């Protein structure tokens, strides 16, 4: 009975450590997906000249995960509430990304970009997209560094903490 309890503690703590480590990996993937979105949106704005809700829907079908849900949320809000400002619909989408653990700096950059999205000509939009791409690239490098630094630590820390707790209890 004690051995079973000790193993349950060790594996539970180890699993928690693995979840935290995976959050670092997910953060890197989500930022890279945002970079892909920015590149695709630039193409849609520069060459296709499609409306923003249609562009978001088209890009969302090509992406996966939280970024796809973000784009679908923005597009859906714009379709359901035609009088809703682009910035307000964009904020609803940013809340989806916030729930998925993106860094505050990335969320602030997205909010700032949402304030200027759709209010100027295509050339000005491209300038803002380039600025957002640079900021997301920096955030991606930072997230990758944090992943390299912290992911393995959390994996080991979870199992070690579980072992320590099991030893102290039994």
Distance between the termini: 11 Å
The helix tally amounts to 6
Uncertain spans, ≥5 residues at pLDDT below 50? Answer: none
Which shape, going by the Cα principal axes? elongated
Radius of gyration: 21 Å
Structural class: mainly alpha
Sketch the major β-sheet. Answer: none
> What's the helix-strand series?
HHHHHH
**Total beta-strand segments:** 0
Rounded mean pLDDT score: 91
β-sheet strand percentage: under 5%
- How many domains? The number is 1
Helix content: over 70%
Would you write up a description of this structure?
The chain has 170 residues and is an all-alpha fold. It has one domain. Helices cover 87% and strands 0% of the residues. The protein has helices spanning 2-48, 52-62, 65-80, 86-98, 104-116, 122-169. α1 (2-48) crosses α2 (52-62), α1 runs antiparallel to α6 and α4 packs antiparallel against α5. The longest helix has 48 residues, at 122-169. The protein is elongated and about 70 Å long. The mean pLDDT is 91.
Please outline what is shown here:
The protein is built from 6 helices and no strands. By secondary structure, it is an all-alpha fold. It starts with a helix and ends with a helix.
Index terms:
170 residues; mainly alpha
Fold blueprint:
Elements: H1 2-48, H2 52-62, H3 65-80, H4 86-98, H5 104-116, H6 122-169
Helix pairs in contact: 1-2, 1-6, 2-3, 3-4, 4-5, 5-6
């Amino acid at each position: 009975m004690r051995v079973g309890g000790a193993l349950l503690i060790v594996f539970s703590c180890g699993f928690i450590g693995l979840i935290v480590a995976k959050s670092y990996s997910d953060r890197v993937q989500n930022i890279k997906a945002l970079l892909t979105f920015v590149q695709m949106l630039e193409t849609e704005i520069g060459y296709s000249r499609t409306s923003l809700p249609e562009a978001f829907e088209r890009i969302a079908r090509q992406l996966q995960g939280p970024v796809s849900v973000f784009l679908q949320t923005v597009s859906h809000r714009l379709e359901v509430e035609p009088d809703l400002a682009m910035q307000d619909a964009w904020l609803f989408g940013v809340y989806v990304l916030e729930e998925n653990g993106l860094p505050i700096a990335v969320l602030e950059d997205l909010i700032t970009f949402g304030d200027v999205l759709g209010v100027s000509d295509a050339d000005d939009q491209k300038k803002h997209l380039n600025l957002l791409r640079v900021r997301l690239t920096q955030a991606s490098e930072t997230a990758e560094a944090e992943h390299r630094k912290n992911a393995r630590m959390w994996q080991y820390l979870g199992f070690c903490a579980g072992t320590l707790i099991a030893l102290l209890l039994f």
